[in-house]
Design brief:
The chain is an alpha+beta fold. It has two domains: about 5-80, Ubiquitin-like (UB roll), CATH 3.10.20; about 85-155, DNA polymerase, domain 1. Helix content is about 30%, strand content about 15%. It has helices at about 25-30, 85-95, 105-115, 125-130, 140-155, and strands at about 5-10, 10-20, 50-55, 55-60, 70-75. Strands 2-1-5-3-4 form a five-stranded mixed sheet, with helices on one face. A hairpin with a 2-residue loop joins strand 1 and strand 2. Helix 2 packs across helix 5. The longest helix has 14 residues, at about 105-115. The model has no long low-confidence stretch (mean pLDDT about 95).
Amino acid sequence: MKYPISLTVNGEAMEFSVEPNLALLDLLRDHVELTGCRRGCDSGYCGACTVLLDGKAVHSCSVPAVAAHGKDVLTVEALVRDSRLHPVQEAFIEHGAIQCGYCTPGMILSSVALLGENPDPSEAEVRSYLSGNLCRCTGYVRIVQAVLAAGEAMRGKI
């Protein structure tokens, strides 16, 4: 049995008829063709599939699509505005926080959510907040530096 759902994805209202076990990740990748959210562990552990659901970072592989009914979903594809990267994206590039890039969209979206909640986090707060996003390449130092720099830039101090 399929269920009708409506949600907003990157500012666009959408309607679907979905099976109750369809993950939000699969809806976004297979039906909306937004591939920035990556399939990693399929168990909500690695964070490669992170999106913002009503402004909160969630692992989309663990969220049933039906649970997103009536909500706003933001993917990494929506962060670029008027051909300008989001300050978090710019900071990731400037600080060399991108290695293979697989975890990057999830890391960036988690960082955007963190800075939305706390525009001036400490290094410990950044590390704690990003603990749900795994990276096998960078060692996290440059990622943390990028998030701190993005927060500073967003606060207008740079």
